[in-house]
């Protein structure tokens, strides 16, 4: 009886995750209290941060919420942080959580319109390189005025739509037939090679778009959450923020878009896989079929979604309310006028966002631990001890490095608070403060494309329903982001040195 029960517990722990991964997580949970007693909280804090990053790297084998959550709970229990500190971090990030809960679900109810528009773009632009630049550029422009998470939600919705259309046909079903695209058991042998090529094509397109959100997000006051914080501390309005950051952000944008074209043109780092002709034919057939059998009802739905999309863009551009509240407005309007009033149909829209919302709260436990154990303070002290332009270079590099392993909003908050205190105490001039503020903004935005840890938009893509469908894991994201990271970080550094 006992061995059987033990085996049941072993199978139940982390579900279908590999056995070695389960043992690794158990090993971490056993080792952390011992390290805490022997080496102290600082070493344990860094160790636990590394363990959490490991759970993100294994996202395709086991969703990070459970193993990361166990580590986060242990962090509180062994005294690396407190429940009060965690709560404060969550309260500070409430606008982001509100955005995830409502805006991502709101984008789901614009899916028909988005699929209609992007299908036409995909079919009309036959050049893979041109399509890559279009996706990257559109994502950059949108992210300069909208939140990057909102833009990535749009891209994910489009990607899932494309994938499901072809996967359904490859499984021998009609377009309107219900279908589960998570498994390949029903895919015909003749379509398997095309499906793998289509996955590679979508991976490249999604990564180009994700990097585009970072390119545009750095440029404006509203592009990323930390930009708003920095603008508030510096007293910059929208126009002044853009002009202050432009000496760095514009060269980085040009370099990023050029990198996008080169990667696709020369088919390196996993980019440049063309859209298979068989997939193009299926998407064209799907588009023609939709147009041919479009009823007044379906046209009415597209018109309503188009009008709601216009209101969404205007609401975000003029910041009439918190982004999450605008998302709730989108849900209400898009469903009220398209007949979606059943609870179970509304609930489906929240399925993709809520697991990530839970994961983000777990991540804030790690952020609270970093804050309570002052893990980044030695770096801050060293940077502020430097003189002149070296401060800006060091801030750019330090915030960039820390943002690749931690939340860039948290890193920006720490650094901008410190240099604002230095300004008020007369340790630096206003001119120095402005330069350092730009260095912090660009440092937390540009190098953080290296990993999903620093960019919430990247993390959202990694843990989305689309990632396992197109086989986009942590390691592959690192590899595909590497050329962007190297080029954009280097150009940004050069701009900080020569132009600021």
Detail the topology: elements first, then pairings.
Layout: H1 2-12, H2 19-39, H3 41-57, H4 65-77, H5 83-92, H6 94-108, H7 111-124, H8 128-145, H9 148-170, H10 189-217, H11 225-234, H12 238-266, H13 277-292, H14 296-317, H15 323-336, H16 343-349, H17 353-372, H18 377-384, H19 389-403, H20 408-424, H21 430-445, H22 456-462, H23 466-469, H24 474-498
Helix pairs in contact: 2-3, 2-4, 3-4, 3-17, 4-17, 5-17, 6-9, 6-15, 6-17, 7-9, 7-13, 8-9, 8-10, 8-12, 9-10, 9-13, 9-22, 10-12, 11-20, 11-21, 12-21, 12-24, 14-15, 18-19, 19-20, 19-21, 20-21
User: Low-confidence segments, ≥5 residues, pLDDT <50?
Assistant: none
Oligomer: single chain
Number of helices: 24
**Mean pLDDT over the full residue set:** 85
- What's the β-strand tally? 0
Task: Report the β-strand fraction as a percent range.
Answer: under 5%
Level of helix content? over 70%
Biggest beta sheet summary? none
- Report Rg: 23 Å
Spatial shape: globular
Give the class from helix and strand content and strand pairing: mainly alpha
The string of secondary-structure elements, in order, is: HHHHHHHHHHHHHHHHHHHHHHHH
Separation of the first and last Cα atoms: 71 Å
């Amino acid at each position: 009886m006992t061995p059987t029960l033990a085996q049941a517990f072993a199978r139940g722990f982390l579900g279908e995750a590999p056995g070695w991964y389960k043992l690794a997580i158990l090993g971490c949970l056993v080792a952390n209290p011992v390290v805490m007693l022997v080496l102290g909280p600082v070493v344990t804090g860094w160790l636990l941060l590394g363990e959490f990053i490991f759970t993100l790297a294994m996202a395709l084998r086991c969703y990070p919420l459970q193993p990361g959550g166990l580590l986060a709970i242990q962090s509180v229990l062994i005294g690396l942080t407190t429940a009060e500190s965690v709560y404060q971090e969550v309260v500070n990030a409430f606008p982001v959580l509100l955005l995830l809960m409502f805006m991502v679900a709101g984008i789901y109810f614009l899916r028909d319109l988005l699929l209609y528009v992007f299908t036409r773009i995909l079919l009309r632009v036959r050049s893979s390189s041109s399509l890559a630049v279009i996706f990257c550029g559109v994502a950059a422009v949108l992210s300069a005025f909208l939140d990057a998470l909102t833009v990535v939600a749009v891209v994910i919705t489009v990607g899932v739509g494309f994938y499901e259309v072809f996967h359904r046909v490859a499984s021998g079903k009609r377009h309107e037939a219900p279908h589960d695209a998570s498994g390949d058991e029903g895919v015909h042998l003749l379509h398997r090679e095309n499906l793998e090529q289509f996955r590679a094509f979508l991976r490249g397109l999604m990564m180009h778009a994700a990097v585009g959100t970072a390119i545009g997000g750095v440029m404006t006051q509203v592009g990323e959450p930390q930009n708003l914080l920095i603008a508030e501390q510096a007293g910059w309005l929208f126009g002044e923020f853009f002009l202050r950051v432009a000496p760095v952000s514009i060269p980085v944008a040009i370099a990023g878009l050029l990198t996008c074209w080169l990667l696709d043109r020369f088919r390196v780092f996993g980019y440049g896989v063309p859209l298979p002709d068989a997939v193009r034919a299926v998407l064209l057939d799907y588009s023609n079929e939709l147009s041919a059998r479009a009823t007044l009802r379906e046209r009415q739905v597209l018109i309503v979604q188009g009008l709601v999309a216009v209101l969404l863009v205007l609401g975000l551009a003029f910041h009439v309310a918190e982004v999450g509240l605008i998302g709730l407005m989108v849900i209400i309007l898009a469903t009220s006028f398209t007949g979606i009033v059943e609870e179970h149909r509304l609930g489906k829209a929240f399925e993709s966002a809520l697991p990530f919302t839970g994961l983000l709260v777990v991540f804030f436990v790690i952020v609270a631990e970093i804050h309570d154990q002052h893990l980044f303070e030695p770096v801050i002290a060293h940077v502020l001890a430097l003189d002149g332009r070296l401060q800006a270079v060091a801030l750019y590099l330090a915030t960039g490095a820390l943002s690749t392993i931690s939340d860039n909003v948290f890193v920006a908050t720490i650094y901008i608070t410190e240099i604002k205190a230095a300004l008020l105490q007369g340790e630096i001039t206003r001119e120095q403060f402005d330069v350092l503020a730009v260095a912090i903004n660009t440092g937390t935005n540009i190098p953080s494309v290296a990993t999903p840890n620093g960019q919430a938009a990247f993390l959202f893509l990694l843990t989305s329903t689309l990632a396992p469908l197109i086989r986009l894991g942590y390691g592959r994201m690192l590899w595909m982001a590497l050329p962007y990271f190297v080029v954009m970080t280097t150009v940004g550094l050069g701009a900080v040195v020569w132009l600021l």
